[in-house]
Amino acid sequence: MILQKEIEQFLEEDLKDDDISCTLVKNQNVRAIIFVKENCVVSGLEIASSILDYMKITYQQRKNPGETAQAGDILYELRGDSVSILRAERLVLNFISHLSGIATNTAGYVKIVTDAAGKNAPKIAATRKTTPGIRKYEKKAVLDGGGDPHRQNLSDLVMIKDNHIEIMGMEQAFNEAKRLTSFSKKIEVEADTKEQALKAAELGSDIILLDNMTPGQIREVVSLLEQKNLRARVLLEASGNIRKENLKEYAVTGIDVISLSAVTNDAQWIDVGLDIVK
Q1: Which residue stretches of 2-81 are H helix?
Q2: Rounded CA gap, 98 and 40, in Å?
Q3: What is the domain-level CATH number for residue 167?
């Protein structure tokens, strides 16, 4: 969901108060198309449509979020006054370009793990390493690419990380989190070793984050938890030092979730254009 005040902030940043560029030509009713110049998974259309609505530009949307598009495919047919279309152009294209890049990149990671592990493939999840101010759109783009958005903010779940453990110790941190947390909210504990992972499982963690572990170390954790009859009780997430080059190795370790900042941070913008058509 995009709020009107957000659209106005975006437009204010782009237009300011001396917009000569968009008013050079006499204002007139025109037709235009928005199209992709390369193959991609489409995202950002909800925010694009909201901006077009705000600018009173009528449109026909030809693609839906999460659909694939081929180079040359039209996303929108537009009709409206020329000044409004020119003013909306860069803002709309930027969101579609950036978010479609994230969706396309995410889909690439999802394909790798699916090809490697089939129906047992782990989920590909994003992290909170996102662009301030537009996180919710980047997380939606991950969803459009077939990934999982993970937590949107610090309030979505309680995560006990290495610094908490360093200060309080795992058991004290977990017990305090349990005391403060509603029954409806999950608790995740970060573990750097199989011993920490076992302790986190024994304490009753809902999720264990296996941080910077190799595929071999993750298999050891999975095996240990199975031996202790704890594996079925806990969700295992792997993160850290995981790249496309070694993703297949992690996909077949028995992990449930692989979280990577790369799905958002390494995404290349998709080339998208807007043309006035006569």
Answers
A1: 4-15, 45-54
A2: 11
A3: 3.20.20.70
- Looking up tokens 């969700």 gives 235
Residue 214 dihedral angles phi and psi, to the nearest 5°: -80, 165
SS3 124: strand
Helix boundaries (H) for 118-243 = 135-144, 162-168, 170-180, 194-203, 215-227
pLDDT exceeds cutoff 90 at 192: yes
β-strands 68-69, 235-239: how paired?
Answer: unpaired
Q: What are the beta bridge partners of residue 148? A: 125
3 state SS of 125? strand
What CATH number did the domain enclosing 34 receive? Answer: 3.90.1170.20
Range of the domain at 71: 4-108+268-277
* Residue pLDDT, tens place only, 125-179: 999 999 999 999 999 999 999 999 999 999 999 999 999 999 999 999 999 999 9
Both structure tokens of 64: 């839906």
Mean residue pLDDT across the chain: 95
Per the structure block, which two tokens stand in for 241? 């030092």
